[in-house]
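[Q] Does anyone have a clean structure-token version of this?
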Amino acid sequence: MSETSEFLSAIIGVAIGALSSFLALRYNYRDLYARSISASRMNWIDNFREELSVVVAALKTGKNDNEDEKKQNGEDPIFEAEKARAKLLTRLNMDTAKLGNEYNKLFADLLNGIKFDEQDTKLKTDTANHLIEISRKILEFEWQRVKKEAEGKQK
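[A] Here you go.
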């Protein structure tokens, strides 16, 4: 009987060890998944802010007509703003039926309506302020997603 009980104890020990390993691996996978998704979302948020700042700066500072200054710093602010606009537009999920995307279409319409060479500075400033206002709503929803994913409450 001694051998049987030792054998049974060994089987139970192996089963408990295997179950513990499986549960630890599963937990680690979920933790890793949540961390990687959260990091990706934070990167998305940071890039969104950076690109928005380029567009807003171009609207608020006006067009740079001085060709010498463009050559000195090697950048055309309008070209950079157009690139930033394109990046912002490709970041947006236009499925407005999906929760959290209700401001994306409004934001995209506003971005598409911008004329960087517009001479009306009040219109450009108002547009920039409206972009900032809408972006806050978009980013707030994304930040809530990051927090939920970091807590493991959402995939």
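[Q] Thanks! Anything notable?
[A] The CA atoms of residues 109 and 129 lie 15 Å apart.
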